[in-house]
Design a protein that fits this description.
- It contains 21 helices and 19 strands.
- By secondary structure, it is of the alpha+beta class.
- A hairpin with a 2-residue loop joins β6 and β7.
- The protein starts with a helix and ends with a helix.
Length: 553
């Protein structure tokens, strides 16, 4: 498929306001994609690689600005691009506003002017870009992007820029592509959804739906070594759980980092909640699984930090390990971590997602000799309270309340798993802006604008407040270092930040407010932690904030 054809269809999709019509347009695009179907199924979502693939372009806005400026001509620089961004509001419109194609210096990328880009060639270049690392990699990435923009028409440049920065903004999310696959290839939506859940690969599912029958979709299964999305919980109470189910399964809620552990009988691979490979940072977990896991398996659980007595340490200590890429041995000596496994998704060649929770826990106990979280089945509220009291006394975060008959639904946050944490309520919010400090903190970002996801599509956020308390000077330095590479623009003391970092924020109450675009504000917000284990797509939604606010009254 010519990239110009993809861009034209993307523009048509963007202009369509009706959800059902968007599904049909995406379905038509997929049906016409031919050999490029797997890539098109991802590109239309603003994704280059499958969700399970931890490859990243690792390209910041400034590099994209520089590439656009170079392709636009000698009289344009990155500052000009940034100024135009402030005026036009999004990078696609900025890229489309320039006349590319006349710049020389990279003959290998063609003479430019549009017409020779294909979906396959764009993917190949982006794949090369993602593999570029080491000394000189920034210059090489800039050259690759310049070459692409130099060959692009205005409309191609609009969607190329958005794709590179994962800001497609055409109203197409995962559910849209799921429904479009079903419509384009005459498959049941439920079958497509299930296939996506077990493969985590829309391209593979689309290709299977097109090239085989419905049975082939049903036959797609988990693969050890390929992560899937984690099942999620919503807030709940013991009374509510016991009203919903005859019995409740009660577990400790650990103050750790969610992991998915894959063991194929030879190699252990550990994925974070974001499906990033964190194996190298957690050698003791690898050792535990090698020694104590008796069969190939996929395990769900948490990694917790512990002190010399085995008592849990705060979540921030776990993050010190997850962030570590160098000197892992020293980090291990400073902060010890252990696995607390609470679910088994696959064992001995058998997928277990459709098995009840109690059966999956039995398989977990059978396959793993250590680190298995206790599961208490009860219909007695007093026993639930006792388990919670024991968990809190041991230094844990609270308890999980689960339907004993619940199957495992990857990526879903439903009522069959509920979390109960006492006292402090928290939200996981996306950082979208900040303000420079004053006085001795003048070189540090000190006040952070926090936002929640909106229904307008991937990458759309509205602010819900600002947080400046709960942060030490040392943490401010770390947060400034973390956020500065993602600054997109500045006006006075205020900076605009690319939405890539998630903060856990404590609060006392959610109030309605005309001050912020979300319509809500957090009362007494305070910084709790950076959630390195969460992607912005996992941050709180405005819909959930509305539910929480309504539940307060």
């Amino acid at each position: 498929m010519e990239f110009a054809a993809f861009a034209s269809r993307a523009a048509e999709i963007e202009a369509e306001p009706a959800d059902l019509a968007i599904v049909s347009l995406v379905g038509d695009l997929l049906a016409d994609a031919d050999d490029d179907l797997p890539v098109v199924a991802r590109f239309v979502q603003g994704r280059v690689f499958p969700a399970w693939d931890d490859r990243k372009l690792d390209v910041g806005p400034n590099t994209v600005y520089a590439a656009i400026a170079r392709a636009a001509g000698p009289n344009v620089d990155a500052d000009d691009v940034e100024d135009r961004l402030a005026d036009r509001g999004e990078i696609g419109a900025v890229a489309a506003s320039y006349d590319f194609g006349g710049q020389q210096g990279l003959a290998a990328f063609g003479a430019g002017g549009g017409g020779d880009l294909t979906v396959a060639s764009v993917y190949d270049e982006l794949e090369t870009l993602a593999a570029t690392e080491g000394s000189g990699s920034d210059d090489t990435k800039l050259d690759i992007l310049f070459g692409l923009f130099n060959r692009a028409s205005s409309e191609e440049a609009r969607f190329l820029a958005r794709l590179v920065l994962s800001e497609m903004r055409i109203g197409v999310g995962e559910g849209t592509v799921r429904d479009a696959i079903a419509e384009a290839f005459d498959r049941h939506t439920e079958t497509v959804e299930r296939a996506v859940q077990v493969t985590n690969d829309y391209g593979l599912v689309a290709e299977t739906a097109r090239d085989a029958d419905e049975t082939a979709l049903t036959d797609l299964s988990l693969t050890v070594g390929r992560p899937i999305q984690a099942m999620l919980a919503q807030a709940g109470t013991a009374a509510g759980a016991l009203e919903s189910w005859d019995e409740v399964a009660v577990e400790t809620k650990f103050d750790g980092a969610r992991v998915q552990v894959h063991w194929d009988g030879e190699d252990v691979t550990i994925f974070s909640r974001n499906m990033e490979d964190v194996t190298a940072a957690l050698p003791e977990i690898v050792e535990t699984v090698r020694a104590d896991c008796s069969a190939p398996a996929i395990l769900d659980g948490e990694v917790v930090a512990v002190d010399d007595e085995g008592d849990p340490l705060p979540f921030q200590q776990v993050l010190r390990r997850f962030r570590r890429k160098h000197d892992v041995a020293k980090a291990r000596a400073d902060v010890e971590v252990e696995l607390r496994a609470f679910d088994c998704l696959h064992a001995s060649g058998e997928d277990l997602l459709d098995q009840p929770l109690v059966t999956r826990h039995e398989r977990l106990s059978a396959v793993l000799d250590s680190g298995v979280a206790d599961l208490t089945l009860t219909d007695d509220p007093d026993e639930v309270a006792d388990v919670e009291a024991d968990a809190l006394a041991a230094g844990h975060e609270g308890i999980m309340l689960k339907d004993p008959e619940s199957t495992y639904s990857p990526g879903k946050r439903g009522k069959r798993w509920r979390k109960r944490k006492p006292d402090v309520e928290t939200l996981d919010c996306v950082v979208t802006g900040a303000e420079w400090g004053e006085g001795r903190r003048a070189k540090l970002l000190g006040t952070f604008e926090i936002s929640v996801r909106t229904p307008d599509g991937p990458g759309e956020f509205e602010p819900i407040g600002k947080v400046a308390t709960g942060v030490t000077d040392e943490q401010l330095e770390e947060l400034t270092t973390l956020l500065e590479p993602h600054v997109r623009g500045q006006e006075g003391q205020t900076v605009d930040i690319e939405p890539v970092v998630v903060f856990e924020v404590g609060y006392e109450e959610i109030q309605t407010s005309p001050t912020y675009g979300s319509g809500y504000a957090l009362r007494f917000p305070r910084f709790v932690a950076v959630r390195d284990d969460k992607a912005v797509a996992d941050a709180e939604s405005l819909e959930r904030v509305e539910r929480l606010a309504a539940a307060q009254h």
